[in-house]
User: Fold Carbohydrate ABC transporter permease from Kineococcus endophyticus.
Amino acid sequence: MSAVVPTRVQAGADVRPAGKAPRRPVYTVIGILILAFMLFPLYWMVNVSLQPAGNAVATPWFPFDFSLRGYTTAISEQGRNLVTSLLISLGAVVFSLLIATPAAYAMAHFKLGRWATVVLFGILVTQMVPGIVVANALYSAYSDLGLLNTLPGLILADSAAGIPFSIILMRAFMGSIPASIVEAAYVDGAGHVRAFFSIVLPMSRNALITAGLFTFLFAWGDFLFALTLTTTADLRPITLGLYTYVGSFVADWSPIMATAVLSSLPAIALLVLAQRYVAAGVTGGAVKS
Assistant:
């Protein structure tokens, strides 16, 4: 029998797990270049917002001589619009979740038969309707109901996009919850309402956060409903305020870019804080137990 002589691994040798391809620096460089190309508009927006002069064409590549004049002007002239957008977005999140959460629970755990498919198909159809069609229909209805230029009117309009999406997302997530868990709550004497609040809602935290986040982003970035359903400057979201701002102050780009930066901060902050919940909420209903 021949003895097996162990080979000595040389110092500094590149030892990798079997089947794992070596990293190539060229791929890393390409990825960095693509990322830099995609983030360049964001950098340029911040750069122009910090310039003391408002000419975007003559802006240097780096803000060495920066100024906060653009931000002070933006806050003083667009601060009210930022607060309006915040109220509309938070109201749309609350209203959408109040409607979509019990609807998704009913579709996921109640025996609705064919009606569940019909309702789900109707929800999907609403997602295909062009926004301008919905906006025109809402304008006629709002004019009769006196909801034009009102905060509840804009909240209700922005919820039209958040509710269907939230129902579809949370129905898939709640459907992945094992039926035995809900049935055990029924055996212990809990009804549908108690099982919903005590069992399903705590387990659906990731889906709730994901649905709320996307609804907030829908409402925060809305321009079509804001343009159609508001006719005065008394109630104006930041998207519409920025649109009118460009027409009024096109010669001075620092306040415009500062307003754009301020309007981007809530969305960026929420995405950073809730990214792990979003990943879990989106993939939670992919595999059914």
Remarks:
- Residues 9-13, 285-289 have pLDDT under 50 and may be disordered.
